[in-house]
Amino acid sequence: MFAAVGAQFLSHYLQSRRIKKEEYNSIYQELVFPFLPEVLIYYETHTNFRKGHDVTKDLNADELIESIRKKSQLGNIKLLIRYNELIRTDYFYDGRGDAKNIGVLRFFYEYLSDVLMILKRMKKDNDLTKSVEMIHKKYGIWILVSEEMGYEDATNVMSYDFLLDDNFYKEISQRKLNNLIADSTDSTDSTESHSKNRKVILKILLNEFSKDGELDVEVIRKLKESLVSNSEY
């Protein structure tokens, strides 16, 4: 009897695993495979150090986001929340005009969160997962710098990301980054607390830029001035 029950349990377990694997394969084919390359390219083209020379084609973020939105039921609810936040920016002015651009970054950040979950559960190629993890963190930092000093300056700051090494990205906790990105749109979060925690990460970024000597670039100086103006650096 116990053997029969055990065999039945094992059969059910294996069948469940097979179904889950098929589900993740389906999600991968519909949500990850068609859009992931363009989400990665969006970061690379917009923050390219020689954008005016090396980038030959602009990616239409609105079309890409709408395509992903149509498959958003395959992701988590946060992706839909980010989409709703984004479309609101078409109707309300935020005072600085950055809400739409930062909303795009938040949407792509959340999309990559979903992608990473799927890749890890499917045990996909480790190199691909590492590449996505890297760009995911870069999107997160781009968002935080945009909050600190505006989207345009933040984009210029991120164009120097080639100066950041692997140790820098290891130092930036993914969990802390996720919490900061979530907190920045959570009305229940303390603005002062969020600002303080954001500056901790941005100071790590600034220190990395200055590791081999002071980087004499206007936008980096502006970032330092922004951090110094509100707290002791």
Describe the structure.
By secondary structure, the protein is mostly helical. It is built from twelve helices and no strands. It has one domain (36-230). The chain has helices at residues 2-32, 36-46, 51-54, 61-69, 77-88, 99-122, 126-149, 151-158, 166-171, 174-183, 191-209, 218-230. α6 packs antiparallel against α7 and α7 packs across α10. The longest helix has 31 residues, at 2-32. Residues 1-17 have low confidence and may be disordered.
The outline comes out as globular
Poorly predicted regions are 1-17
**Rg for CA atoms:** 20 Å
Overall pLDDT confidence: 81
Domain module tally:
1
The ordered H/E elements are HHHHHHHHHHHH
- Going by helix content, strand content and strand pairing, the class is mainly alpha
Identify the quaternary structure here: single chain
Per DSSP, what share of the residues sits in E-state strands of 2 or more residues?
under 5%
State the end-to-end CA separation. Answer: 70 Å
Main beta sheet: none
| Portion in helices | over 70%
Query: How many beta-strand segments?
Result: 0
